[in-house]
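your task:
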Amino acid sequence: MSDDARSLVPRLVARDASLWPDGNVSPTRLGWLDVPRRMADEAAELAGWARTVDQRTVVLLGMGGSSLGPAVLEAVLTATGKPGGPGTSRRRLVVCDTTHPETVGGLDLSDAFVLVSSKSGTTLEPNVLLAHAWAQLPDPSRYAVITDPGTPLAQLAADRGFARCFENPPDIGGRYSVLSYFGMVPAALIGFDVAELCERALGADLDEAAGLGMAMGEDAKAGRDKVTVVVDPEYASFGLWVEQLIAESTGKHGTGCIPVPTVEPEEGPDRHVVPLRPGSPAGLGEQFYRWEVATAVCGHVLGIDPFDEPNVAESKKNTNDVLAHLPLPEVEASAPDEVLAWLSATTRPGDYVSLQAYVPFGHDEALEALRRRVRDHLGGMATTAGYGPRFLHSTGQLHKGGPDTIVAVQIVDADPSPVVAVPGEPYDFGTLIAAQSIGDHRSLVSHERRVLRVAVGDLDDIG
């Protein structure tokens, strides 16, 4: 451990804003440093409240930092068969952080408790998803919200008489919020020992975490900017969370680290490889905090503010512009069988490929198979894959604000059916997800990124 890394920890814990460039937003974003202690103190109360929920399924409506941490917690419990061992009956969490009509229309609310998570309370996706859910299930006793104090969502919860409104400390950004109410309320609902998760977080080796962050930053400056996080298969979902944290925190002002989560070794001259083995579901608490510290320190090394997201609003604005001028404009799309040839002709050493799939949930294996196929076709080039519009609230910042090494393949559904109305709006969910893909395409093009758009009926058609 270098003395430089060790010296940074006291400054971080003391909330020293001079760690990052002048004008940074850290004075209003460092609540994550203390929140595990608060959540540990409230763990018994959260567990008691969770026991009052009668439903056996929790449907979480959120985006970005509000949804990715809970999605990891659920996926790890499912993969490991814990708590209690294989076959244990427990409450299940279904995370809906998409606007694809097939996924939204397929939500089963018959035995569901609905948890709406949004820091600002104004984010488009949770709001339209809540409108959809409320039209199917107008029972306030089966709803709770997690939001910042005084948001429109908090007011809506009060007006409708929702079962609970958890007001999160406002000085925590979305991607650093997993150890706050945004992660710990869902954790309590699905059977985690919240106190243990938080105690494991508080026990993290901060000097080691700072060293990890310094190494990531120094390697990125030396051209080894593909942070390849290798996890055991049971913890593959951790990649969803750490990908957002690294990408949205560091990918700005033409620099940044490109996270590449994988369950198998990937090597290359531009790789910074980090093996990760939580050991148990409770070990996620330590890993969450470890990576938050590392990413904050990495921002210090890169000379950027790891707590802002200057490019995220672009695609949101473009989406709204598209929706304000319906019908949808025509956007040129290439044939699926042209993708690999286009990538071969377009990519350069040091690039990475981003596969951006605006398709319904449930295609994880096909999307991962496509990622590996592209990676291998390009001789091991770093390749990432994610669902849209989910990634707009995570890696999307990196795609526009990070280094000009992205080669994007935007994959849209050739037939986004069925038609599912958005209550109170002049468009349906199929139109909305199409507008989001068009808006992000415009944003990528405006930043002169290399991007190919293809419309597919099946991910296996891409070749």
User: Anything to note?
Assistant: The longest helix spans residues 283-302.
